[in-house]
Specification:
The complex is a heterodimer of chains A (161) and B (496).
Chain A (H helix, E strand, L loop, with lengths): L5 H23 L8 H19 L1 H7 L2 H26 L6 H5 L12 H26 E6 L2 E6 L7
Antiparallel strand pairs in A: 1-2
Chain B lengths: L5 H16 L6 H19 L5 E4 L10 E4 L1 H24 L6 H20 L3 H19 L5 H32 L4 H11 L3 H18 L8 H7 L2 H28 L3 H23 L4 H21 L3 H32 L15 H15 L5 H15 L3 H26 L15 H20 L15 H10 L2 H8 L1
Antiparallel strand pairs in B: 1-2
Helix pairs in contact in B: 1-2, 1-4, 2-3, 2-4, 3-4, 3-10, 3-13, 3-17, 3-18, 4-5, 4-10, 5-6, 5-10, 6-8, 6-9, 7-10, 7-19, 8-10, 9-10, 9-12, 10-12, 10-13, 10-18, 11-12, 11-16, 12-13, 12-15, 12-16, 13-14, 13-15, 13-17, 13-18, 14-16, 14-17, 15-16, 15-17
The chains are: A mainly alpha (161), B mainly alpha (496).
């Protein structure tokens, strides 16, 4: 059997979506409550890492492939950069909060901080996908000792060579 | 002036677009990588002679992060981006031996963004962040070949580099604790108003240690002879050519001269470290038989010259040091590209195995001859002028011992490069190299460009004053002025 025992699997099946949602909440409310893009991204990645731990990596990789995670990684970083660059065109300065400058939001509302929420989303995408990638790479690659040399091998979905 | 943040944004954008689109188009990383570095070269030439302060997001200094462009930054920007362009041009053919070009270019551009950020930052912590971006990318690039030796070198570099970063971060923490600001100009203002205290002195010691490790000054040099030869040739040329200068020398000079202000003690520390690196580096280089390892030891030695020149504290000494800095980035990058070309064609870097390949690889041989004569200080090449200025400055400043050491190290450098030329390019052609071919044109082009630079810089940069057309390319004097002004830096930046 791939993965952990039935108890762990059942709990993980229940908990994973709550963890995922909590990560999104932390991201979206980053400008109002403690948290933000980085913490939210880590929590989102944790829900996928839980999947890997409980069910084995094939189940997690079926939802987000390595290629997709790598794309998301670049997209998150680019989004952040585009928001910063838009500041030059819309507000005259790199990284300026151009939404807040042109159309200030109401205090204590979800969209009260202009570009901050957009930046948080970008960071969450970037951090979440790169952390997931790091974990997948650690799970997929093994270093074995062959003779007196170390060799890196890629294991297949079941963790065999 | 509005271009300042683009020096960081453009390479970052390139670094993240490349992995997105390269899976479909194989040619994409080469084209975009070279376009980005070409654009950066043009931008860095466009800011020559300009200066300014840029507040990120329009937040003013104590709260926001500022980027500062002045003479010293311009000097570094120009040399970083020119060398980066030559390296990416060279990478098109050279990197085909390796597996993943898209990761290579992505990491390369990240490293470039980090270096450009370091020389433009006006904020201590922001400087640290950019320094880490550049360092982490370079750790990965050193181990890019994924062979046993490369991974080992990369790991050693990673550990020692992290030790350096920890010292720097601790130093920044101490500074922030006792001053209450991270803005360099404000730190400087506070120090000149309230004087030094023990926490700051400790921070200075940490910075000398941390930045000294990044610059590979002699007691801290152990990582460099492993890391630089193990990297792919264009990366070696970036590391030795500009990375140790942007991350080590520039940061050290900026902090000591512009932020805390130098006194006799600090200058003496710089001079002793410089002289030590100069002599010990070249002595260690002398016994090497690995082409790139020999060059790596010479980097330590040449960095010693730069630090010695700047450490003299006189205008002439600083001019010599900075001139040697840009000269070294030209000829050392060229030498590493030559070593890469030799390795590309023959598959070895062992000096004893090579021999007489001059007739088979004329472009590589002639460009490396130019670079060797530059580094050894033969007139009329650029290295001669900067070494001459440093030696004269030593004598004028009443430090004849250092002058003598500089001459001694220069003679050993000459001897060591005579050895390289003799064993690799001259002598009789060994039989096994009979069907050797010259490297492809795309690899010779950057070598020829850098060789021309070695010749032109020697003739051009020295005799110009403030007259005529040449004033526009005068990048040394503003940089010298920035260092000589010392802690006036604070009032200038805060006044802008």
């Amino acid at each position: 059997m791939v993965g952990m025992t039935l108890i762990v699997k059942t709990v993980a099946r229940w908990v994973k979506s709550f963890i995922f949602l909590y990560g999104i909440y932390i991201t979206l409310y980053g400008h109002l409550t403690p948290g933000g893009g980085f913490a939210g991204g880590v929590i989102v990645a944790c829900s996928f890492i839980l999947l890997i731990l409980a069910f084995g990596k094939e189940k997690a990789l079926k939802r987000i492939s390595k290629a997709l995670a790598s794309e998301l990684d670049s997209i998150g970083a680019l989004m952040f950069l585009i928001i910063a660059l838009l500041g030059i065109f819309a507000g005259g300065t790199f990284f300026i909060n151009f939404i807040q400058k042109n159309a200030p939001g109401q205090d204590f509302h979800l969209l009260s901080a202009g570009t901050i929420i957009l930046s948080n989303i970008a960071i969450a995408v970037k951090v979440g996908s790169s952390l997931f990638m790091v974990f997948v790479i650690l799970a997929v690659l093994r270093v074995v000792k062959k003779g007196d040399k170390l060799e890196m091998i890629q294991t297949n979905m079941r963790g065999e060579e | 002036m509005n271009m300042i943040p683009l020096f960081v944004a453009v390479p970052l954008a390139g670094a993240f677009i490349i992995p997105m689109l390269s899976r479909k188009f194989k040619w994409f990383p080469d084209v975009l990588g070279n376009l980005v570095t070409l654009a950066l070269v043009i931008m860095s030439f466009a800011v020559i002679g300009k200066s300014g302060v840029y507040s990120m997001g329009a937040w003013k200094a104590p709260i926001g992060i500022v980027m500062v462009l002045d003479g010293l930054s311009v000097l570094l920007l120009v040399s970083i981006n020119v060398i980066a362009f030559a390296s990416t041009l060279y990478s098109i053919k050279y990197m085909e031996q390796y597996t993943s070009k898209l990761r290579y270019y992505s990491l390369f551009l990240l490293m470039l963004a980090g270096m450009n950020g370091v020389v433009l930052s006006g904020d201590m912590f922001n400087l640290f962040v950019f320094l880490e971006i550049a360092s982490v990318a370079s750790y990965a690039l050193v181990g890019f070949g994924c062979e046993h030796e490369e991974l080992e070198a990369s790991f050693k570099y990673l550990v020692l580099g992290t030790v350096a970063s920890t010292f720097i971060l601790l130093g920044i923490g101490m500074t922030y604790g006792s001053i209450g600001s991270l803005n360099m100009a404000q730190i400087s203002e506070q120090i000149s108003q309230n004087g030094m205290n023990n926490a700051l002195l400790f921070a200075i010691a940490l910075f000398i240690m941390g930045f000294g490790l990044k610059a590979a000054l002699v007691p801290f040099h152990a990582w460099l002879p492993d890391a630089h030869p193990s990297a792919p040739a264009p990366i070696s040329s970036m590391l030795s050519g500009v990375l140790i200068k942007a991350l080590g020398i520039y940061t050290l000079v900026r902090f000591l001269f512009n932020v805390v202000g130098v006194d006799e003690r600090l200058l003496m520390i710089l001079m002793v470290l410089g002289a030590l690196s100069m002599v010990i580096g070249v002595m260690l280089a002398f016994g090497q038989w690995d082409f790139k390892r020999l060059l790596a030891y010479h980097s330590i030695s040449q960095v010693g010259y730069i630090i010695l020149g700047i450490g003299l504290g006189t205008p002439l000494g600083i001019l010599g040091g900075l001139f040697h800095l840009i000269n070294h980035s030209a000829f050392k990058s060229l030498l590493f590209l030559n070593a890469g070309a030799v390795e590309y064609s023959t598959g070895t870097r062992d000096l004893q195995e090579l021999g007489g390949i001059r007739e088979k690889m004329p472009v590589t041989a002639n460009t490396s001859l130019v670079a060797s004569m530059s580094i050894a200080g033969i007139p009329p090449f650029n290295g001669f002028w900067s070494k001459l200025i440093i030696i004269i400055a030593c004598v004028q400043a009443g430090r004849p011992v250092f002058a003598a050491l500089a001459v001694f190290a220069s003679i050993l450098t000459l001897a060591s490069f005579l050895k390289v030329q003799k064993y690799v390019f001259f002598e009789k052609l060994k039989e096994k190299w009979n069907d050797l071919r010259e490297v492809p044109a795309l690899m010779s082009l950057p070598m020829v460009l850098l060789a021309l630079l070695c010749i032109v810089m020697g003739v051009l940069l020295l005799p110009i004053g403030n007259t005529g057309v040449l004033e526009n390319i005068n990048i040394l004097e503003p940089a010298v002025k920035v260092i000589m002004d010392g802690t006036d830096y604070a009032s200038k930046i805060l006044g802008m």
